[in-house]
Design a protein that fits this description.
heterodimer; A: 244 residues; alpha/beta; two-stranded antiparallel ribbon; 8 helices; B: 304 residues; mainly alpha; Serine Threonine Protein Phosphatase 5, Tetratricopeptide repeat; globular
Chain lengths: 244, 304
Amino acid sequence: MIVRIASGIPGFDDLTLSGDDLDLGLGGLPENTATLVYGPQGVGKSIFCYEFAYYGLTQDEPCLFLTTDHGMSEIYGSMADIGLVLDEYLEKGLLYVVDASSSDLEVEESDNYQLSSVLNPTDMLVKVTREARFISQKNPRSRCVIDSLTTILESNNEMLIVRVLKTYILRIKEAGGTVVITYTEGSVDSKTETLIKSMVDNIVKLDGDKITIEAMKGMARKEVPYQITEDGLKIFSNGMDFEQ
Amino acid sequence: MNLHSFKSMMVLGIFDSNDPESPIKELLEQLWEYQEAEAGLMVEIATLQYEDGDTEDAIGFLEKAADIYHELEFTGQEASILDLIGDVYRNNDDLQNAVDHYKHSFKLCSKIDTPLKEEVSNKIKDCEDELQLEYGKGKKVTGSLRKDESKLFDESYEETIDYGEIGKKLDDIVGLLDESAVYGTYQKLKNPMGHLKEAYQTANDIGDEKGQAALLLIMGDMSLKEEKTKKSLDFFMKSLKLFRKIGDDKGEAISRLMIGTAYFLLGETDEGSVYLRQSMEKIHYIDDKNLEKAALALLKSIYG
């Protein structure tokens, strides 16, 4: 039986209903798996992560967010723009951030906020592992995000980062986490891209118009339209409500 | 507990109890035999790889074999393997690396007084002569020393070394390494050495050699401040090996400074001077003014 957790992305859970009796009519992302969300720039990959992380927080599931592009204040602002206000969850200490973006250097480090650098993959991994272990002691279920893998790949030897990714996924799974990783299509050569895809359990592609479930545990390939609205992503899971 | 501690306990008869043939003793002896056999196999593999022209892997296996012999305290075998690594580097025209390994081998040979000592000593001399020739021909292997710096090395060093001051200078130097800003923060955590070792293990798992080298340097610096000078030297040597492997000149220069200082603190001033001199040459070669300033401050603390 595949246990799925609600994604928090409107329409996504309907899209991922497998129709199998065993999934109890619940769609979402398979629990304790790694999902690669990829596509060109500006197609809503980060929004996918924000909504995924935020929904978990509303269910008291801690979230470990490794950010490489945007500092914490920018993420806070971007989430607030689509109605995802973090204050309550920051206060509850449910959000753990490893900030490797080097853009919020004035923010003080704490148990929930660690600074790192994309140039130091070991440090990123050490801090993520430390936080994941800590989170798993508090809650057996958690959500983890890397937004995005592209920046890490651009700053390091690609094969080194493939090994980092492998270790990251392994450690997060051991800690009971469900992972979403974003990646900008075409940032590395096709061989490395194939290697990255082979390391995750699920692959979701966003191209600005359509969302494609290329691979997911317990379901076949699916493709439907989606839009980026002021409330975030809106996926037209049956294609019916879609307006051009 | 490491192998050395186990061996010490055996020597002290801690495992003897009432049964002279205790199972632990038997198992340990078995383990050492396996490890010795493993090292032997590695040397054989390295030989075949070398014959196939795969020098890098051959050196990798020889280094692993040397590590095993070091752990087993088989000094003679370790010296032979280091001599062999020196030969591989020499045949590859990497004279500086060859000299480094021959010197390490020579040191071990001197400890146990083996006939290999003379042979290695000759190799060191030959390589150093060749290196001098290369300098003479204008082949820029490293930088060179300025007159005032050369004079500094010729002066006798300060007999009473201020450890506190040197420690501070070393911190400044390690801080100049790009990775120090991040890994240096581990020292503020509870059980910093534990965190550094964990990070080193992670770096090793993912093959982040630059991270490994930087962490070894920081661990060495910490050990030195705790006056565990020999241990620190071990960290610095490993760090130097990695920085050389990845071609990181700044890291190499810093490692050599640290090694030189550690040798001084151990009273091995000739060896210390060699490393410090090599470091200064490298610093000039990469033309890093900040590092040069920090290195000169360290040299002044050492030589007075």
